Task: structure prediction
Amino acid sequence: MEGNPKARSILEFLTHRNPHVVLSPDSNPNTHNPDFYWPREVRKWDEFHFENLEKIYEGQLMNAARAPRYALLHYPSILVKDCRIEDEPMTTSLITKWNDSIVSIALEAVKDELNPCIWVQKASKPDRSDHKQKVALRPDAGAYSIHEQDHRTKKERFPKDHKCARSWTSLKIRNGEHVDKRTGEWRPGRIRRNDTMPIRQAYTYSVEFGCRYGCLLTTEEAFVFRIRPRDQYSAEPGSAEELLAPQEAVKTRGLMEYVSIPWRHGTDENNDKYQKLTVNLALWVLHVLAGNHHQILDDYPDLHTEKLVLPIDMSEPTRRVGRKRSVESERDRELKCYPQKRTKTKISPDRMYLSFSTDAPSGTEVRPS
Result:
């Protein structure tokens, strides 16, 4: 912002305080669609916090964030009128001018080190040509791998949705009013409420695109999340059923792990000593994580064991094969980074949200090594 000196590191850039916003007292109803998917279990994502960032990629992530970067661009110019928010389009305008600009500059700075995906303002629609699409979908923003050059083959990696802060907040999720904190299950009647629809909408984007990460952005918080099946699925190794199992499972028995980062987090000090998650820092980290691994799996390794993948060599000719084969090869690249023993677990059919099993499997990856 005007009057502030340029940041000297990515971490300083990403932890600068967000602009002060003045919200209109009016609110509008959220998009309501009974066909939106919904996670059967919602829990706090305990792993996603500032201290744990230090361990990701064996420290390489935060080393890159703290390295001197004298060529970073200046903070975007934000006018007073940009910060008077009355509705969702105004929310999108500020997020695009401020958060998108800062995070994109920081991602560009590490494109050769960390293989991130890049924030795009016009997200694509999911490719559901093989069967009927559940709802008409297009997130407010998305992300593609920085190494994907052909727009026809780009795959969505991190869908993002924007909401006016007067119309939606995650408070009732966090305080246990909508979701039982002990079991993670929805309280009776809450899943169909209008103030629950943004959660379902963002979750549906991640499900339809086959993305493990997603988020809801307002000018009061970033609600970021990761999804997976709440129980493990048994399928033959290497079969088509195994490839599709997790993405199909989250439609009816998914788990959402979330963190809410307040918009107010940040500092006006020009240094990189701030040690809390900010909206921009969290979004930058998730764009890096999704650039390396974005597909839905039955379970995930601890964040501190995440591994960087080698970028695709764009100089090699691409052999045109069927769509199913290309999905398999991409999935295989991700699974190679998660060498785990395979276990088989029988599951029972989903019985809607009033009768869940409360036993959540953990600790083992069910994919072949």
Q: What stands out?
A: The longest strand covers residues 221-229. Residues 45 and 106 are 24 Å apart (CA to CA). The chain has ten helices and nine strands.
